[in-house]
Amino acid sequence: MSEGPDDHVDVKDGGDVDDGADLTDLAVMSDLVVMHTAGADDEVVSPANPGVVRAALGLWRTRLGLALVVALVGVAVVGPWIAPYGPGEFVGTANLRDVEGASLGTDYFGQDVWSRFLYGGRSILFLASVSTLIGFVFGAAIGLVAAYDRGRLDDALMRVMDVMLAFPQLLFALVALTTVGPKSWLIIVIVGVTTIPRIARITRGATVPVVERDFIGAAEALGESRFRIVTRELLPNIIGPLLVEANLRLTYSIGIIAGLGFLGFATERNAADWGLMVQENRVALSVNPWGTALPAIAIALLTIGTGLISDGLSRTVAGIDRGRADA
Amino acid sequence: MGILKLIIRRLVLGVVTLIIVSIAVFALTNVLGDPVTRMLGRGALPDVVAARRAELGLDRPITTRYVEWVKGLVTGDYGVSYANGTPVWDVVADRINNSLFLMAMAAAISIPLSLFLGAFTALRRDGLFDRVMSNQLLVLAAMPEFVVGALLTVVLATNIWHVVPSVSRIRPGEPPWSDFDGMILPVLTLALAVTPHVGRTMRAAMIEVLESDYVEMARLKGLPERAVLWRHAFPNALGPTLQVIALNIAYLAGGVVIVESLFNFRGIGIALRDAIPEANAPVVQFIAMFIATIYVISNLFADVITIIVTPRLRTRLS
Questions:
Q1: What residue in B sits closest to A298 (Cα-Cα)?
Q2: Which H or E element spans position B131?
Q3: CB–CB of B287/B268 below 8 Å?
Q4: pLDDT per position as a tens digit, A35-94
Q5: What share of chain A is helix, strand, coil (3-state, %, to 5)?
Q6: Where are the domains of chain A?
Q7: Does domain A18-62+121-318 have CATH number 1.10.3720.10?
Q8: Looking at the whole model, is its pTM more than 0.90?
Q9: Between the CA of residue A297 and those of A265, A301, A311, B51, B86, what are the distances in Å?
Q10: How many CB pairs under 8 A join A and B?
Q11: What spatial distance separates the first Cα and last Cα of chain B, rounded to whole Å?
Q12: Smallest Cβ distance to A296: which of B150, B205, B211?
């Protein structure tokens, strides 16, 4: 099968639709869509645009997303200081809706739901941010190097990335945790490492068309070092799509880590953790719904927030928001 | 002949992928930590640990054990559970059927629904329905499925309405449809996890196709709009979407772990969840390989069907 530059579907590399007008939709699910990386026809790459973030903030969805994220991060960071009780403090009979001093009732163990909620966001946010950062740094580096190389190194790197994509992230984490148990470092490593190929593919796809532009040739002719070309010439030109992808990966990292917490594999037993709280209090849902609903809503709002930011950014990068006042 | 060659090439690629995955799975469950230490606890006496290791055959070199394990996978001997010595197959056999049925139901609902939603919103691009639906799908796509499931339980199974049961009660040895009501929430949750991704891809693909030259050509030729949409636009939009559908079927295979745990659905997901705290490596390894195989097969199908339904690609092959 030959590869023409104008193929919309490229089965060899996993098909995708590349259309500047719809980067929004594709970017948001780019973990599922294996991005079309062959050929130099990608018009989705924005020109150098240092004002991507500022422009994105002009959209209501980005602002709403940011407000949600700031609010939830605020709860997670400040929460432990304003919590009326400790995370493991016993305040009354288990699973009660009306308890003196516990505004949202008690949980499965007689602990204060509100206090545990205030304590329970930190670990998820910490693990998700660190692992996404690891995936982002290594993924971007690999993608940039592969795109700039365009030779054997490119082929080798991308083959490895493809194989790494052949396994669901959550399952990978579960398998790894089997003999080690719930260890934070392992969760960070696994989620970080499984994020790398996803970011690398997007980075490569965005960088390839930039590599072929004239100013890169000019920089090479001027004798700039390869490191300098990659970091000073290429990187600034793909910052838009990279930001979109990083945000999206953060959304999924939060989902995976909260999911691991829900299964009981992210923290020690009875730790205050939003994911674990959903599991612990699910049985008593009809007696005191808050123990399940509050952490579930918190995770939902957090991921919706990061999702909205991704969407706002990608609309800006693709330049498709026509300034419509769709508030 | 092109198709056959392609299928063979994809098959080989699939087998290679599975071999690499099997090495990863085996390494992660053996090298990273020691199942016996985890089972017996840190305070276990060294000679007890050694005896147990010998009993499970873990004292032999890792390469020998890997080769044996792979041989077993190929010949249908999946090993025995560390927890109680029963064959892994007996642990998972009826659970596999339950999980496959759950996935099939979720796929049967979400795929037509998302294809329809995607095509429909693309046709009415930027209309009210499109905008509302796009935002809905964005929100749904962002939420982890256990959160969606938990909120569905609050709304449909306990606090607000109580129209469906919040847990599934399939007894061992009974088919999954023996508790049909109990399947509603798991199926719904899984379907909602997949619909946004497929729907959004279909919408994007359909928009691109509708703006393409050949659709304009078909319209200019004077073909009726219905023929333009169904004969020309829809099949071409389906191509790229199939890839995403395949990835989502694979995703369903991973998602069952969470959804089954949430609704106590008796499937391989729960078996996996229960095997992990026991460090029951044979069960974990088998289920991981099973899910990886579903993944590889669904991708293989997607590639082949994409070629068959996409006129451009089909003609290029011959």
A1: B147
A2: helix B128-142
A3: yes
A4: 333 333 333 444 445 577 888 888 888 999 999 999 999 999 999 999 998 888 888 787
A5: 65, 0, 35
A6: 18-62+121-318
A7: yes
A8: no
A9: 21, 6, 20, 49, 41
A10: 222
A11: 7
A12: B150
